[in-house]
Amino acid sequence: MKQLSAILKMSPERIVYILDNIDSFYRQKEEKKFDPKKGSFKTYKNGNLKIRIINPSQGDLKLAQQRAKNRILSKIALPDNVHGGTKKKSNITNAKVHQGNKYIFATDLQEFYPSISSKMVYDAFLKLGYSNHFASHLCKLVTYKHKVPQGAPTSTHISNIVFLQTDRKLIEYCNTYGITYTRYVDDLTFSSQQDFSVHTVELMKIVCDNGYKMSYRKTSYSGEQTITGLIVQLNKIDVPDSIKYRASLEKDDPLQPVTDYMKRVTSTNRHNYRQ
Description:
Layout: H1 2-8, H2 12-20, E1 29-32, E2 34-35, E3 40-41, E4 51-54, H3 59-71, H4 91-96, E5 103-108, H5 112-115, H6 118-127, H7 132-142, H8 155-162, H9 164-176, E6 180-184, E7 187-192, H10 200-209, E8 220-222, E9 225-227, E10 230-232, E11 237-238, H11 241-248, H12 257-266
Antiparallel strand pairs: 1-4, 2-3, 5-7, 5-8, 6-7, 9-10, 10-11
Helix pairs in contact: 6-7, 6-8, 11-12
């Protein structure tokens, strides 16, 4: 506790108080699910909006989590294939890696954060060399109701750390068969110049054997397709038509965030572009 207290610059008594009263440091709210491909909110067949429950942290817990993210979690080395929650990487760099590959296999992890239990987080910390007590205290600070909460500043970093073992198995397998693999949080993408359809079952098995569920509705094997919200083609990457339409509505907006995003995507198609 003293070591964690020194890193977080927060007294042991305050940390203990937070952990003993954890419910008061989280709030709950509903968030509508957005479909970047269509540029609209997701709905069920009956027309009702799809909603996810998120639990943002607040007060001193949020402050402790932000410090833990900056001073502990962000310093843990991750493989190059990880593009979510890492500096100078994004959904754009994730998609760009697969440009030029003829065959693409994309899938999505189902309920990714909630599927990561506090035990998985604790075990991951132990594997990184932290002591039992340090791992236990840190685990309690970044999990809620025995799982990784949606909305906490540490959640993406925690998911990357817990998924490390699975990432390494996928990387080893893909390197053996000449397959390019990247992950953007819960989006997994594999590609190659050669048809690797015979390997898709084994790739899914590696993921499922490590305790994760895949969204088979979002799993596809084809050529040109959308990867982390971007259209990947042989010679370029591009934004969907829905994004172009939203950009066209920003003429009177001095900030033009969608237009700026579209420019950042298309700028990667220049020959002198560097990631």
